[in-house]
Design brief:
The chain is an alpha/beta fold. 40% of the residues lie in helices and 15% in strands. It contains 14 helices and 13 strands. The strands form two sheets. Strands 3-2-1-4-5-6-7 form a seven-stranded parallel β-sheet, with helices on both faces. Strands 10-9-8-11-12-13 form a six-stranded parallel β-sheet, sandwiched between helices. β12, α11 and β13 (308-310) form a beta-alpha-beta unit. α7 (202-213) crosses α12 (319-330).
Length: 365
């Protein structure tokens, strides 16, 4: 079967959905050499994550991952996608994220192509994005199947989308640990990973760390990622004279080494449909701290067993985060316990081989 895998961009994006996308493509390609990958990236782009060089790539050179869609660019994307579909005649499309499955659904009208959409966000994400959600509902009749990351997420969507829904969680690739020493040596580091936006709420984490930093002078906070709020937070940290304790190095290629040496991982996200960075940190035996309201955290963490689920802050105060961090700083045995249990949980429940089997089964249905 001729399958086209499509996502908005791979060149500059270091997000969890892009990592999952390339892992699924690489795995499917081993059994189906006719698959191809389509993105809006520039021609001859280098994928941030490893994508098999033998996989055929189609690059539309239409802004890539960081372009904010205007009406004109949205219509142009449909036109460009339509040309590709007419020329290549795929039998099936697997489109990741609404930024791709919405325009490609419009582009496939009357072409008799099955479309599997992979939705990586919970319904709460669209509360303030009414137009985007309207377009999703508009194209949903054109979709054959919709992959969600958990049953909790499915039930939040309209019933016509629920009936097409399948649950396939993200894989967490244990192979990445092979090049590191099996005996992990932890340092006094609190880590967080994610795009610098309002949802990730890195500012809340920074304030929480600042509130207790003077009591624990050997501990550091590192936040990896990029985004529109990063420069503002760098200025904030510098103004508070905390640049020797709080580090925001941006996107890094050796993220595994950061996971490996960090003792605590904190996600201050308002919404997480899965929480790939949380799961990866757990694989590297970081003691995780997440908010109870996050669907992803609820699926990954068993409070008091393999991490800490804390209540949402009241009036954006950082007390709950700082208290959780301080508890783990003061109790090294608890950190080790959570870290070991977290690793066991991820290895048992999120094996890449098992997730790929589910994708293959869905494609063949």
């Amino acid at each position: 079967m001729k399958i086209l895998f499509a996502t908005k961009g791979l060149e500059k994006s270091s997000g969890g959905s892009e990592r999952v996308f390339v892992e699924i493509c690489n795995a499917i390609y081993k059994n189906n050499k006719t698959i191809s990958v389509l993105t809006f990236d520039k021609t001859d782009y280098d994928s941030f994550y490893f994508l098999d060089k033998e996989i055929s790539r189609i690059s539309l050179d239409h802004g890539g991952i960081f372009r904010h869609a205007t009406i004109f660019s949205f219509l142009k994307s449909i036109y460009l996608l339509r040309k590709v579909l007419v020329k290549n005649k795929p039998e099936m499309i697997v489109a990741f994220m609404h930024s791709m499955y919405v325009p490609i659904a419009f582009a496939s009208l009357f072409l008799d192509i099955k479309i599997i959409a992979s939705e990586h966000t919970s319904i709460e994400y669209y509360n303030k994005k009414k137009l985007e959600f309207f377009l999703i509902r508009l194209v949903s009749p054109l979709l054959s199947k919709i992959v969600f990351l958990s049953q909790k997420i499915i039930v939040g969507y309209p019933e016509p989308m629920q009936v097409k829904g399948f649950v396939i969680s993200n894989p967490v690739n244990n192979d990445r640990r092979r090049h590191l020493s099996e005996s992990i040596v932890k340092e006094d580091i609190i880590l967080s990973v994610g795009t610098f936006d309002n949802n990730k709420r890195h500012s809340l984490l920074i304030e929480a760390f600042m509130s207790i930093a003077v009591k624990y002078p050997h501990w550091q906070l590192i936040i990896l990622g990029d985004g529109r709020l990063r420069n503002d937070l760098i200025k904030f940290v510098n103004n508070k004279s905390m640049s020797d304790r709080i580090f925001l190095p941006g996107v890094v290629e050796n993220i595994e080494s950061y996971y490996s040496k960090s003792s605590i991982f904190v996600s201050a996200s308002l919404h997480e449909s899965f929480g790939m960075s949380i799961a990866e940190a757990m694989l590297y035996e970081c003691a995780p701290v997440c908010f109870l309201g996050s669907y992803g955290a609820q699926d990954l963490l068993q409070n008091g067993k393999n991490g800490m689920l804390i209540k949402e802050p009241i009036n954006n105060k950082c007390d709950s985060i700082s208290e959780a961090i301080e508890k783990l700083i003061c109790d090294s045995q608890l950190r080790v316990k959570y870290g070991r249990q977290a690793k066991k949980f991820i290895i048992k429940n999120y094996k890449t081989t098992e997730i790929v089997k589910k994708w293959k089964g869905l494609i063949e249905l």
